[in-house]
Amino acid sequence: MSNRRTFAIISHPDAGKTTLTEKLLLQGGAIHQAGEVKARGEARRARSDWMKIEQQRGISVTSSVMTFERDGVTFNLLDTPGHEDFSEDTYRTLTAVDSAIMVIDGAKGIESQTRKLFEVCRLRNVPIITFVNKVDREGRPLFEILDEVADALALDVSPQAAPLGMGGLFKGVLDFASETVSVPEGGSKEFLDTRKPFSELESDLSEELAEEIELARIGYPEFDLDAYRSGDLTPVYFGSALKNFGVTELIEAIARWAPPPRPQPAGEDQVSPDHDEVTGFIFKVQANMDPNHRDRIAFMRQVSGTFKRGMKLTPSGLGKPIAIHSPILFFAQDREIADTAEAGDIIGIPNHGTLRVGDTLSEKNDIRFTGLPNFAPEILRRVQLKDPTKTKQLRKALDDLSEEGVIQVFYPELGAQHIVGVVGQLQLEVLISRLSAEYKVEAALEAAPFATARWVKGPDAAMTEFENFNRANLAKDRDGDLVFMAKSPWDVGYQEEKNPDLKFSATKER
Ligand code: G4P
Question: Which residues belong to any copy of the Tr-type G domain (predicted)?
Answer without folding.
Answer: 2-262
